[in-house]
Amino acid sequence: MLPTRATSFASLSLIAATLCCGCADSPEAATTDVAAQAAPLQAASYGGRCERVSLEVLGSYRSGVFDEGAAEIVDFDPATSRLFVVNADAAKVEVLDARDPTAPTRIGELDFTSYGGGATSVAVSRGLLAVAVPAEERTDPGHVVFVDTASLEVLNSVEVGALPDMVTFTPNGRYVLAANEGEPSTDYLTDPEGSISVIDLARGVRRLDASRVRTADFAAFDRNSLDASIRIFGPNASVAQDLEPEYITVSDDSRTAWVTLQENNAIAKVDIRTGTVTELIGLGYKDHSRSGQGLDPSDEDAAIAIAPWPVRGLYLPDAIQSYRSGGRTYLVTANEGDTRDYDGFAEEARIADLALDPEAFPDAAALQDPAALGRLKVTNTLGDDDADGDYDALYTFGARSFSIRDSNGALVFDSGDQLERITARMHPDFFNADNTESELDARSDDKGPEPEGVELGELNRRTYAFIALERISSIVAYDITNPRAPCLAGYASNRIFEGDPELDEGGDLAPEGLHFISAAQSPTGEPLLAVANEVSGSTTLYRVGGNSAY
User: Fold this and answer.
1) From CA 226, how far away is CA 220, in angstroms rounded?
2) Alpha-carbon distance 265 to 4, whole Å?
């Protein structure tokens, strides 16, 4: 059995106790003191307290399949205590018995290849499993398939848009929403429109047909002016073709959905009852030149070098969740970053290979050094403001953070450079390692720890965000009860840096999908967190321990 890892409160307290007084504010100071780079973070205090949680590994199901997406998205059925896990490698959904969380056991599988190319997402509500299944040709319409969670009988299916990549139920169970990403073909000659399918289950799943499916599309926005930070940049693409829905969250009253448009740096707001997109919200840019908003941009200096740099970050969020605080709805995003890299179109460039405007960057030669900004990946679609071939601004992918926004998309909180500083403190020898090999600094040039997933859970009337860091392969917990003053609450890693991941000796690698199981729904009566790990192909259950103030 693999050794388990859990939160170390001794280390966590060091991180959270004080403000980062020794952090470098300039590139020159950045590499002088590794201890200073990993210096503690201040835990914001509100109402006189900040409360933390523990994350203790209970058990794992391990597919033994390395780096093939054998565990991507997970959901839980409380009636049967079953986990449903998307296995992209096998093009199936695996069914795990989790009645004993210390030993989750595979008891079956669901094969959806007759509908197309295999499952991409699952969601459970009231004994019903919804599965997103793209077509074999991903630019063609896909399906959402409905399965009984107890009998595993396929009950019905409906056609949805191209490349359904995420599916979710509304809290009241009446609607199922699918985010149809609509990615282009690799040659970019076929580019289907992105959309959100709204499936009405009011008449029951067995009577479901095409008449109960509404398509919330973006055709109306082809004629509208958009926020300048919304990226519409695919070759010859209309707005409707270019927008790519990624992930969905739904309001408590089941009336409104917010959908991340990851590559577009935007969020769509959807009226569920009418099946219409009512608003597109641009997310703006992060200023990495500000103190506390820095990053480590080089994978060639073999050092922890977090500092402010003259770069802007495109938020490009993947997962999104929502919650209520003080009578208002707030959105929580994991700002992973993503790029378009196809045979027919590619946007990635390294700063060393760009011509920088001498007025905007008088120190261009120094900045383009590989140990400075030279290795950092940026987009070649933004920054040449006067179209003279020289870049006046630099835009990198993802914000290396999680953010909280209000229901209209206004930024309330961003974690700045805290996630990199936390992982530097916890893993100084493997800072910004990739999830396939344990090499220090390997991902500093490319989205850093890469926050991909976020899940929310409540304990003792407090709300926590669990953020999955895909590359360093860990989970960070924040107390977000007060959305304007979140604080670090816990940290866990079940990774074994010294092990050989190809032999399944590396522990859990690349957490992607997370699902919080409340005490009321848990088979043990204790809160649990289920985590699907894409690279290690493992699904792990954590016990979420009780609160303690600090």
Assistant:
1) 12
2) 37
Residues 295/420, Cβ–Cβ less than 8 Å:
yes
Give the CA-trace dihedral at 20, 21, 26, 29, to 10 degrees: -110
Backbone angles phi, psi at 453, to 5 degrees: -105, 150
* Predicted local distance difference test score (pLDDT) of residue 547: 64
Q: Which residues partner with 330 through β-bridges?
A: 323, 406
Question: Does the pLDDT at position 241 exceed 70?
Answer: yes
Residue 406 has phi, psi (to 5 degrees) of -80, 180
Pairing of strands 154-162, 55-62: unpaired
Q: How do residues 55-114 score in pLDDT, each as one tens digit?
A: 999 999 999 999 999 999 999 999 999 999 999 999 999 999 999 999 999 999 999 999
The answer to whether the CB of 120 falls within 8 A of the CB of 166 is yes
Question: What's the pLDDT tens digit per position in 421-455?
Answer: 999 999 999 999 999 999 999 999 999 999 999 99
Question: What architecture (CATH level 2) is domain 9-338+398-549?
Answer: 7 Propeller (2.130)
Global model pTM greater than 0.90: yes
Task: Assess contact for 94 and 85: CB atoms under 8 A.
Answer: yes
Condensed to tens digits (0 to 9), the pLDDT of residues 182-232 reads 999 999 999 999 999 999 999 999 999 999 999 999 999 998 889 999 999
- Angle, helix 9-17 to helix 418-426, in steps of 10 degrees: 140
Mean pLDDT of the residues in the chain: 91
- Read out DSSP for 95-150? EEE-SSTTS-EEEEEEE-GGGSS---EEEEETTEEEEEE--SSTTSEEEEEEEETT
Q: Is 353 exposed, middle or buried (0-12, 13-18, 19+ CB in 10 A)?
A: exposed
Question: Residue 101: CB partners within 8 Å, gap ≥ 6?
Answer: 58, 59, 522, 523, 524, 528, 541, 543
Name the amino acid, one letter, at 435: N
Tally of residues, the chain = 550
Domain ranges of the chain: 9-338+398-549
- C-beta separation of 369 from 363 below 8 A: no
Phi, psi of 520 (to 5 degrees): -65, -30
Predicted pLDDT at 50: 73
CA–CA distance, 530 with 55 (Å, rounded to integer): 11
For residues 30, 36, 38, 42, the Cα torsion angle rounded to the nearest 10 degrees is -120
Say if residues 511 and 470 touch (Cβ distance below 8 Å): yes
CA angle (418, 9, 324) in 5-degree steps: 60
Beta bridge mates, 75: 84
Amino acid identity of residue 227, one-letter, is D
Q: What is the mean pLDDT of residues 27-34?
A: 28
